[in-house]
Amino acid sequence: MTTVVLADDEALLRKAMAALLPMEGDITVLAEAEDGAQAVAATLDHRPDVLVIDLEMPGVDGLGAVAEIRRVLPDQVVLMLTRHARPGVLRKALKLGVQGFVSKSADPAHITSVIAALHGGRRWIDPDVSALAVADDCPLTDREIDVLRATAEGYSVADTARQLHLADGTVRNYLSNAMQKTQTRTRHEAARYAREHDWL
């Protein structure tokens, strides 16, 4: 028997999965969550074999929730459901140690078999999801992404430098490189361009 916590803000989909997964395999749904904060609380409370979590949720999103859970339960097995598996998001999820990625439109029987595989210690990324990851065309370095993310959040160069423990001049160099790579004129345009391409 595999225990799961289901986290998805779409009530209809979440309820359908809660009803269908136990019918498809040896699965017990311990709890449901409708946002990231609830997902964190339910997972830490119930300690499921597998957390099945939607990527895009209000407030704390799927990635934010997994990051919080990982701090307490570093070995928590996670299956992430997504409609738009963009390369930057997939890269972040894999860095967080997410073991499985499945499209939200997948058949419940398929999701059940993936849950069983993850519980058995395997990894799974749906082919359509991994195809997007291979197509990743982000030219920015991790540091350039860091400074653009700070820019997008409204931080000044000085604030960004303090936050990342860098010199002001170093931050300006990273921003200049990012502006060249995105062919934009200002750091705010570069941040917007990077966000639109899901590089942040």
UniProtKB/TrEMBL annotation:
InterPro entries: CheY-like_superfamily, Sig_transdc_resp-reg_C-effctor, Sig_transdc_resp-reg_receiver, Tscrpt_reg_LuxR_C, WalR-like, WH-like_DNA-bd_sf. Residues 3-119 form the Response regulatory domain. CDD domains: LuxR_C_like. Pfam families: GerE, Response_reg. Coiled coil: none annotated. The keyword DNA-binding applies. This is Two component transcriptional regulator, LuxR family. It comes from Lentzea albida. The lineage of its organism: Bacteria, Bacillati, Actinomycetota, Actinomycetes, Pseudonocardiales.
